[in-house]
Amino acid sequence: MPVSSLYKYTGRKYTYRTRGNGGREDEAMELREYLKEHKLITDGAMGTYYSRLLNNDNAVSEFGNLTEEATITAIHKGYIKAGAELIRTNTFAANRQTLNQTGKEQKELIKKAYRLAKRAVAESAEEGQAKSRRVYIACNIGPIPENGTRTEEDILLEYQDICDAFFEEGGDIFLFETFSDFYYLKSLVRYIKAKKPEAFIITDFCLNKNGFTTKGISARTILETIEETKEIEAGGFNCGIGSGHMYQILKKLPLPVGKFIFAMPNAGYPEQFQNRLLFMDNEGYFRENIQRICDLGIDAVGGCCGTTPDYIKNMAEKLSLKEAFRGNRIVLSGIKETNVEVRPNEFYQTFQEKKKVVAVELDPPFDASDETVIACANKLKGTGTDIITLADSPMGRSRVDSVLMALKLRNETGLPVMPHICCRDKNVIAMRSMILGAYVSGIRNILIVTGDPIPSEHRQSTTGVFDYNSIQLMSYVKEMNREHFKEEPIYYGGALNYGRGPIEKVIERMEKKIEAGASYFLTQPVFTEEDIRRLEEIKSKVRTKILCGIMPLVSYRNANFIKNEISGIHVPDWVVEKYRPDMDREEAEWVGADIASQIIKDLSPFADGYYFMLPFNRVSLMNKIVIR
C-alpha cells in the first residue's frame, strides 16, 4: 500500500516527507494555517467530468467508487497534476435516497471514496505530479433530498452517519456544498466539532443569478450566518451560476472578518443537445473572472459543474495571486441596516386591539362555480368575523387555488383574507412564484402548513412534492420578508396539532415555527376536556397567539364521520349522542352551535381567539354561536 504524504511548510512550497501508517494527521490544522497566508486552488467538477469521460450523462460518479476505481483515482490525480491544492471526495450525492442504498452500503461507499482520494494524493506525490505541494482532502457532503416520507430527525441522523464514516477514515476537513439553507448545518457543525474539535468546516451555498438560494436566502445573509456560527471557519458559494455572475454577486458583498471565503462557480450554463447537457469549453474566460474574484480578497477558488482539469491548470498557471490579500473585511453584524418604516398589518392590529379574534374558514369549490362561496363570504359581514381563511386543497383533493380564491373574495367582499399555503403540491420554483404573485396582488396574511398527504387511491397517478415542510417554508417567507417585503411584511402563522404526542414535543415544534417567524397558531377542532387542558398548558408555556379550532357539527351523520374518519380530531361519544338521525337541519345546527358556544366559554380564559371550521360552509351557524 503506498505511503501517504505529509509536507513540511517552507513558504508557499512544501517539502515532501512520508508517514508510514498511511495517516494524514493534523491536516485540518495545516490547512487552517496555510489559508492565513495563501490563497488556495481547489479541484473542479467530479460528476459532470465523470459523465463526460464515460460519454454517459446518466452515469452516477458516486457508484464509480465501487465500479470504476481507476477512473475516479485518475480524475483526482488529474486535478492534482493540474494544480489543485484541495480535492473533494467523490461523495457529493452519497445519500441513501439518491443512490437507493442501505446504511451499510452507503458507509462502505463513503469510506471507499475517501481511500481513493488518499490513494490519488499518495500516488501523485510519488510520481512527482504534486510538484512539492501539500494536497488536502475535503470530505464532500451534499444536501440529502427531503420529502414528506422522511422526518427531520431521520435526515439529521443520516448526515451524522455520513460524518461518522469519514471520521473512521481519519477525515478532518468537511465541505458541505451546494446547500440552500442552514437548517441542518447548524446542528451538524456542532456535532462535528463535538467529536473532533480540530476539524475544519467549510459551508458552500448554491445561488441563482440574483444572489439568492432556492430557499430564498440572500448571499449577504449567508455570510452573516457564517460569521456568527463559530464552528464554521470557511464558507462561500459554489454551483448554480457561472463565473461571470459569481463575480457580479461577490463584488457587491461585504466580506466577514475571521472567516475564509470560497468561490467555486460552474463553467457556465449548459445547453441541451440531443438529450445531453453540454457545457462550453471556456477556460480562458473562466480564469479571467476567477482572477477578478481573487482580486476581491477571496481566499479559495475552484470549479464546479462543467469544469475539468484544464480549467484548474489554466488557473494554477496564469492566476496572479496576492497571497496574503484578503480584501476589506468587516464585522457584518456591526453594519446597521437602513431604518424602514413598516406599514401596520390589519390582522396583527386586530390581535393587539380585540379581546378575541375570529377567523372563519371557507372551502374553495371543487369546480368553477364560485357563486356559493362568495355568497357565504358576504353573509359573514356583520358576524364579527375578522378574517376569512381558505384551505389549500384539503385532504389532498383538488379545489380552486386558495390564493386566487382569496383574492376574489377580498375583491368581492372587502373582507380580510388568509389563504392557506401547503407544501404538498408545489416545488421550490412554483412556491416562490406564488408567494411573489400573492404579494404583488395585495395578500399580506397566510397560514403555512405542511399539507395533508395525497389520498392512497391517487398515489400512483399523483405525487406529493414536499420540497419544504412547514417550518422550512416559514423560514423562506421570513427571508423574503427581510429581502423583498421590508416595508410591509407578510404576517403568517402555522397549524398547531396539539394532540400529537407528548406536550414537550408539541411545544418544541411550536418553538421552531416561532423561530421561523410564525406569529400565531390555528389549532385542530377542540371537543374534549382533555383537549382544553392540553391547550391551556401549551398556552401557559409558549408565548404566542393561539386561535382555538371550533367545528360546530351539523348532523348526526356529520358527527359520526368526523369522529370515525378524520384523524387528529377527538369527537367524544357524548357529542355524537346529542344528535339524532331524524333531526332537521335547523335543529341540528342549534345543537352544534350550543356545543360550540360551551367549548368557547371553556376556552375563553386563555384563548386569543377562535378558528371556525364550518362544515359545508354553513355560515348561518355564526349567528347562532355565542362568541363573546
Key features of this structure:
8-stranded parallel sheet; alpha/beta; elongated; single chain; 628 residues; 8-stranded parallel β-barrel; 40% helix
Give your account of this protein's structure.
The chain is an alpha/beta fold. Helix content is 40%, strand content 18%. It has 22 helices and 22 strands. The strands form 5 sheets. An 8-stranded parallel sheet has the order 3-13-10-8-7-6-5-4. A hairpin with a 2-residue loop joins strand 11 and strand 12 (276-278). It is elongated, with a radius of gyration of 29 Å.
Itemize the secondary structure elements and their pairings.
Layout: E1 4-10, E2 13-19, H1 27-37, E3 40-41, H2 47-54, H3 61-67, H4 69-82, E4 86-88, H5 96-99, H6 103-126, E5 136-141, H7 152-168, E6 173-179, H8 185-195, E7 200-205, H9 219-228, E8 234-242, H10 243-250, E9 255-256, E10 260-266, E11 271-273, E12 276-278, H11 283-295, E13 300-301, H12 309-318, E14 329-330, H13 346-353, E15 357-362, H14 371-379, E16 387-390, H15 402-413, E17 417-422, H16 428-440, E18 445-449, H17 470-483, E19 491-496, H18 503-515, E20 520-525, H19 529-541, E21 545-550, H20 556-565, H21 573-576, H22 585-603, E22 609-613
Parallel strand pairs: 3-13, 4-5, 5-6, 6-7, 7-8, 8-10, 9-14, 10-13, 15-16, 15-22, 16-17, 17-18, 18-19, 19-20, 20-21, 21-22
Antiparallel strand pairs: 1-2, 11-12
Helix pairs in contact: 3-6, 4-6, 4-12, 6-7, 7-8, 10-11, 11-12, 14-15
